[in-house]
Amino acid sequence: MREETYDISGMHCAACSASVERVTRKLPGVERSDVNLTTEKMTIRYDETKVTPEQIVAKVEKAGFGCTPHAEKKEAAEQALQDAEAAELRHKQWELITAGVFSLVLLYVSMGQMLPFGLPALPLPDLFSMHTHPVNFAILQLLLTIPVLYCGHHFFTSGFKALVHGNPNMDSLVAIGSACSFAYSVVMTFLISDDPHAYVHNLYYESAAVVLTLVSLGKFLESRNMQKTKGAITALMRLSPDTAILADSGNEVPTKSLKNGDVVLVKPGARVPADGMVTQGESSVNEAMLTGESLPVEKTAGSEVIGGSVNLNGALYVQVTRTGEDTTLARIIRFVEDAQGKKAPISKTADKVAGVFVPVVMGIAVLAAVVWAIAGQPFAFVLRVFTSVLVIACPCALGLATPTAIMVGTGLGARHGILIRSGEILEITHSVDTVVLDKTGTVTRGEPAVTSVVPYQCGGDTLLTIAAAVESVSAHPLAAAITAYASSQGLGALPKPESFENLSGKGLRAVLNGETVLGGNRRLLEEAGVDVTPLLKEAERLSNQGQTPMFFAKGGVLLGLISVADSLKETSAAAIARMKELGIRTVLLTGDNHAAADHIGRLVGVDQVVAEVLPEEKAGVIQRLQAEGRKVMMVGDGINDAPALTQAEVGCAIGSGSDIAIESADIVLMRDDLQDVPRALRLSSLTLRDIKQNLFWAFFYNSLGIPLAAGLFYALGWTDVMLNPMFAAAAMSLSSVCVVGNALRLGRARL
Q1: Are 309 and 293 spatial neighbours (Cβ–Cβ below 8 Å)?
Q2: What CATH number is attached to the domain comprising 299?
Q3: Average pLDDT, stretch 539-554?
């Protein structure tokens, strides 16, 4: 199976996106097809042995839409696209102004002679008076309407094209309604000379013109607001500098030409061109746009820096470690783009409705017109009902309800250093009732340090030397703590083990000077037949203090134990307290011993502690919680957390963790701050609330507007409750603007 993304043009409403989905899903070998109206992208998964990209493009184009394979946008391309969109928006603005001016004059001419409530008629030259020169009166309206029709010509070209291809959309509804009003008025204009008083009151030029103008106004406001919702990716794109200074030559070169290993000079106030490691210099670096962390981070030799961050004061020499699409910035951009391009499950209901909405509305409009015609109403009344139903029922608000909220929500998360992979994850997170937390590196700093060295049948230096020698080839954080402590004690050069084996969840086995050395937990040594009884009480005491004791044996003889402790992150307890306020059950999951884990659990206030769990068993713990009916979020940072991150409904990786953990996760916390977990939960809740509000008002609007436009209330005796096509157009536009505006309001929320 192959998955590809295509750019779709010509879509104007949810019915359009539903049409594209419908025609592509009918192709042989297509497993899934999802179209996002706001991003104008289609993600399609298909069997390439049964269907080709050319066939997919042809099918979409036959349905009346443009379709091109999506190319990953570089910064320049993205800027060019933004410039094009801005130019198009300016063009729409001028068309709108022109249409607005002519529509206002048209309203003055047409309605000014027929003011209600006994108001005097507005002044108009006698040459164009409906009473003395009705033909001139009609022709003037015709001439004023033509420029408005020209400014709104795209509604007719797009609408009728979609209708011909059997995929009517919003433009089809507007085009038919406006065209019918205009055509009817033209016929009446030619008949006026026969009977002026009979036909002069049957002119609906203002309906044809004002409907187009008001719908255009709504689309313009919608487009302008939609540009604001795309700000997250745009802001990220601008973070990467165009050029970098090579340290060896001092030459300024394009950033895209940098290679791994290059050393660049980053001057004060400049942006770091790519991910790398500081080789020389000291400075403070602002990583706020990437991690959401407002405070500058101190960088010295050996510190890692992120491409796109700002060097605040001292000069830094940085050796490039990642370039191009491998940089942290590029990964963040892909994360946000994917999130904004994928639908949430809640949108499926709206999509199903929208897929049949336009044809149903056209049927209702025709039915209402026929019923009123049979009931004996004049043709002018029938036309008004027909046009009003078509115009008011445009499903724009319905189609924008979900994707705009998701786009704004994921953008808000990105600004706070919370990266969410998809709209689906954003919705699922709202249902989470249990958060499982890895201990080391998540709840604690992940920087353990040696606290006690307890020799048993050897000297302390001997125990430390042997332990450091075998741990020196291990990548485990506890191993690093022991080797660092040995170095600080001035033990000198360490012997090299002849062989080494990492025993996941237990410790290690190595051969040193021809003898087997074991280092790890009680289980490891007891399985090897080593008696650890002499040190059990001491180990228990240390464990009760939250420390991790590691036993060491050589040649089957117990040498002693070394205790290591990992300090808590300052925000862990506060984060867990806030989760509890949200009604979330918290579970601490660790491979550490029960005593140490329980101690940490008590300090931070978790509801449950699950300890001495092997990496492969972590996913099983998640499964057991899910079997109890719980919706689980797993928060971790290491390679051993990847299976559990995948198993959970929502996998949440600490941003400073391993690449594997990040790639396995649904949410990435760039700030390495556990308080971002309740922030992510709140973001999900706010976004879902926004979506539900939008969908409610979209459905409510159409549920009320269509019967009103069809004349249902008029038939029930409420003769004053009748909708004019102009008011229908205004109401339709207002509904779309309100939906987008409500989504933008989400962007100002506090997490």
Answers
A1: no
A2: 2.70.150.10
A3: 86
What's the whole-number mean pLDDT along residues 42-64? 90
Domain shared by 607 and 657, yes or no: yes
Average pLDDT estimate for 408-417: 83
How far is the CA of 85 from the CAs of 42, 158, 226, 232, in angstroms?
19, 19, 11, 16
Question: What is the tens place of the pLDDT at every residue in 648-675?
Answer: 889 888 865 445 555 667 888 887 789 9
What residues make up the domain containing 43?
2-71
515 and 379 co-located in one domain? no
CA distances from 413 to 285, 544, 643, 683, 746 (A): 22, 39, 25, 7, 11
- Let me know whether 593 and 606 are in one domain: yes
Q: 187 and 111 in one domain?
A: yes
As given in the structure block, the two tokens for residue 658 are: 């391993």
Residue 215: its H or E element: helix 205-229
Select which of 438, 666, 673, 690 is catalytic: 438
Same domain, 639 and 653: yes
Residue 704 lies inside a defined structural domain of this protein: no
Question: Is residue 344 over pLDDT 60?
Answer: no
Q: Are residues 557 and 602 in the same domain?
A: no
Question: In terms of domains, do 141 and 247 share one?
Answer: no
**Does residue 126 lie in a domain region?**
yes
CA distances to 444, 471, 488, 489, 495 from 484, in Å: 19, 10, 6, 9, 15
The answer as to whether 694 is a domain residue is: no
Is residue 626 scored above 60 in pLDDT? yes
One-letter amino acid identity for 145? T
State whether residue 538 is helix, strand or coil: helix
CATH number of the domain that 485 lies in?
Answer: 3.40.1110.10
Q: Are 361 and 389 in contact (CB under 8 A)?
A: yes
Read off the tokens for 739. 């939906």
Distances in whole angstroms, Cα of residue 599 to Cα of each of 481, 537, 711: 20, 17, 71
How is the beta sheet containing 243-246 ordered, strand by strand? Answer: 252-254, 243-246, 263-266, 316-322, 275-280, 304-305
- Look at residues 531, 546, 565 and tell me which one is the last residue of a structural domain: 565
Asked if residue 310 and residue 267 are part of one domain, the reply reads: yes
CATH of the domain at 56: 3.30.70.100
- Taking the C-alpha atoms of residue 298 and residue 283, their distance in angstroms, rounded to an integer, is 6
Q: Does residue 144 lie within any of the structural domains?
A: yes
Question: Is the Cβ–Cβ distance between 389 and 364 less than 8 Å?
Answer: yes
Higher-pLDDT residue of 121, 378: 378
Phi/psi of residue 18, nearest 5 degrees: -65, -35
Report d(CA 705, CA 720) in Å as an integer: 15
Kind of pairing between the strands at 585-589 and 608-610:
parallel
Decide if 34 is catalytic. Answer: no
Strands 434-438 and 585-589: parallel
Model pLDDT, residue 304: 86
Give the highest mean pLDDT range of 109-123, 132-146, 158-172, 347-361: 132-146
User: What single letter denotes the amino acid at residue 195?
Assistant: D
pTM score above 0.70: no
Sign of CA dihedral 116, 121, 122, 126: positive
- The residue among 519, 540, 565 that closes a domain is 565
Q: Over 80: is that where the pLDDT of 512 sits?
A: yes
- Rounded Cα distance, 584 and 395, in Å: 38
pLDDT at residue 558 greater than cutoff 90: yes
Tokens of 433: 């009732």
For residues 482 and 469, the answer to whether their CB atoms sit within 8 Å is no
- What's the domain count of the chain? 5
Contact 416, 676 (CB under 8 A): yes
